[in-house]
User: What shape does this take?
Amino acid sequence: NLAYRLVPAPYESSIRLTKLMLYAAMEPYTEVTGSKQFLRDNFPKIIAYIGSVPVQPNGTIVLGTAESGTKVNLYNLLELNETNGADPVFLNLYFFKTIHHEFQHILNQNKPYPNSFRAISGPNYVEDEWSAKYRSSRESVVDGFISSYSAKSDKEDFAEVYSIYVTSTPEEFERLINQDGLNSSGKALILSKLAVIRSYMSAEWGVDIDLLRTSILAKYSTLAVFDQTTLN
Assistant: This one.
């Protein structure tokens, strides 16, 4: 991408992330649907690894991008090593949450989500001003956006609520949408969005997002052992 200065991903990190992706990001879908066919039919056919991260003019970084429903780009593999390769917090921040976010975009391209989702926040999306308007989730949640980035557009909001929900423990998600009790109206908006997502994933794709989250979190709890026995 000529818009950014990027460097290639190290070979060892690419192998490590591929095995981690298969284990902690892809297998849960197979477990929940009972078949590999869901992934064969819908998961991106190409995942491209890049060593560095693209930096936007506003100072924010890009964690991942989806292209034409077939390709996902993941960045920051220069930072992936044996130590943080077993750290679910690091892996979730840079890779796992991102792949679920980008995968959701692909699913939405194939089967659009209902218009009722956008209606929840209506005209309050701020497009490229999201990073200036909301410096943190503590600020965005008050207005019903689960993250600063989710305030960009309804499609990013949909993918953010989904990816954060399925990769967070119930306690983590509850803390996020409560934000010290300052956002009761914002919490209600986020839960309304989550209800639409839950219905959409069940009706259109046969995926129970609560079972999916349970499976994902079970994988996270064994990452240290998986990393030691499988990646070395």
User: Anything to note?
Assistant: The radius of gyration is 17 Å. The CA atoms of residues 35 and 227 lie 25 Å apart. The mean pLDDT is 90. Residues 11-33 form the longest helix (23 residues).
